[in-house]
Structure prediction request, 182 residues.
Amino acid sequence: MAAADASPPADLRGAWALKLSGAGFNWYRSETTLQADDVLVRTRAGASLTAALARLAEIERLFRHRHMPPPTRQLPFPDPGRVQELRRIEALRAQVSALETKVRGSPMPPADRVSLRHHDHEAVLARLVEADTDMVGAADDLATCLRGLDDQTILADAGQAACARWVGYVESALMRRAAIMA
Prediction:
């Protein structure tokens, strides 16, 4: 008998399937696909926020280079006004960094049988798709917005307002997402 023709007995196959499904793995089911899609969505939003962080680091580097010269005997300390501007850039960078961590660490939709019995899975997924669309779109737009700003325009009121708007949209989508998962 060839190895390709050998098939295990039905009771052994049943025990193996029980091992997989008993461990919480729903293989070849839509719930597993939905969890994989959720990981892709959060990865996409996280990648956009990482790009925004990279641009903010570049803006901060440019600002330091242009406006924060090395200390000298005549000017041992930087201009306090410039230090405040630098702090605003650093604060935005810290806020986007915290947001990126929350996006990547947000929970996945449950795929276990108990939660699927007690929740209207389709309605939950519809609300989740809406929140995730907002999250990815706002994260992409934040990265795009920052690509068009330099160290001076980001400090202007319009630059601050644009960044705050996109960050607010991502935060709102994350809050809605957390409420959906609760």
Summary: The chain has a mean pLDDT of 83. The first helix runs from residue 10 to 22. The helical segments are 10-22, 30-67, 80-105, 113-118, 121-147, 157-181.
